[in-house]
Amino acid sequence: MSRPANPVTVPLADYSPQHFLLAVVDGVATVTLNRPERKNPLTFESYRELTDLFRACAFDDAVKSIVVTGAGGNFSSGGDVFEIIGPLVKMDTKGLTAFTRMTGDLVKAMRACPQPIVAAVEGICAGAGAIIAMASDMRLASSGAKVAFLFNKVGLGGCDMGACAILPRIIGQSRASELLYTGRFMTAEEGERWGFFSRIVTPEQVLLQAQLLAKQVAEGPTFGNTMTKRMLAMEWAMSVEEAIEAEAIAQALCMTTADFERAFHAFANKVKPVFMGD
Prior knowledge:
The chain is of the alpha/beta class. The chain is globular, with a radius of gyration of 19 Å. The chain starts with 19 loop residues before the first strand and ends in a 10-residue tail after the last helix. It is built from eleven helices and nine strands. Helix 1 runs parallel beside helix 3 (about 95-110). Helix 1 (about 45-55) links the parallel strand 2 (about 30-35) and strand 3.
């Protein structure tokens, strides 16, 4: 389980990943899981390379938002049965703990990544694929998309990669419990009704709409968006009083940016502000 040979040390626009596709256009980085013949499963190597990518985003000011999707009509079927689950049954406790911490590191990297992440979910989105969608900041679904946290189907607990912490905050404790205890598929319609998905679009439109949403975010104030993402994460563990104080400090910092001043002058001149990210 060695690390990828080329961890991300260059701007994302110049980076050529080994285990997925990457394109950066107009400040939006699109990450495409690209093993369509097997519904885009993850491997030891792709877990690590994705983690490295999201960590590198903190150092690339040219990337303002991120879209995650899958090739060939499916998002991801989760961990590869033969390349991951097969080797796991032969590992000792030390090796297994190293693996589960490594997979959790991907969610940590996504949550710590300053850029908002949009998941464009089409077809099958299961196991670790469902976790990647869950860990994103926003999710769009194609009609016919199906999401399942399948861990109990392979004899494990639903407590994987932060699912017991994050999923109830998105869809509620009872609904999250049902999905984690049964491992059943949640339809796109259920996901939208429960708040997992922002909206449902046609399969032909899901990636385009996700990229348009990401572009809309990218055109906003970069520092302000970063602060919003941080506060959304940090305030889970705060009282209302602590949250109000934290937001007072965060908003005061946003007011020191040139983008805040630009917005004022644009409003005064009745034009749309053009944010520069400083």
